[in-house]
Amino acid sequence: MEKKKLDRISELYRKSKKSEGLNEDEKLEQQKLRDEYRKGVLNNLTGQLDNMTILEPDGSKIAVKDMKKKG
Length: 71
Prior knowledge:
Elements: H1 3-17, H2 24-50, E1 53-55, E2 61-63, H3 64-70
Antiparallel strand pairs: 1-2
Helix pairs in contact: 1-2
């Protein structure tokens, strides 16, 4: 996610905590940006897990992405 969008999320959060709060458009913008941020985090985590392997006690290796397919 772009730094500009992350800064905007922070700006909206700070404004929401003040007495004036957010108007409806800002609330929608905040929700949209938060959803985009969450999707990015989830995609990054999924990508990392897909590239990991688990070393079994017998020395064999199992790719995490192969484990997802089984179960």
